[in-house]
Write the structure tokens for this entry.
Amino acid sequence: MQADDVFGRLANATGVYRGRGDGPESGPFVARMAVASAVRGRAVTLDYEATNDRNGLQHVEHTVLVAGEAGRLELHVACLELPGVVRFAQTGPGEFTAYEGPLVARIVLRLPQPGAISYAWWWSRDESDPREQSRADLRRTG
């Protein structure tokens, strides 16, 4: 998959995705993501939430995928765990990294097949390299 193919494939696969997730930080959860094209196709929005039986709603996120000034894809993420809106710049196909804040965080966005999204958060609480803490595997349901 080409790096810029993520944008085009998501823009052409709008809808609601649902699935399950897990991870050492999150534990098992149920996930929902609404994908929409915005601003006449210049942006893609991802509205993502994760819930589990123990904690109820554990994560709510509004993300905008756009091409930055240099043409490289960027995710602009707003969620309760981050201070304000944080920019994640594309560092590889489907990989977006943020260097702002106290820890390095990464979002890995994969489109393994039509109608499917894999969405993972990576980070580390110490100086080590980020590792996957939470991943949802979603299928389009609407």
About this structure: The mean pLDDT is 90. The chain has one helix and ten strands.
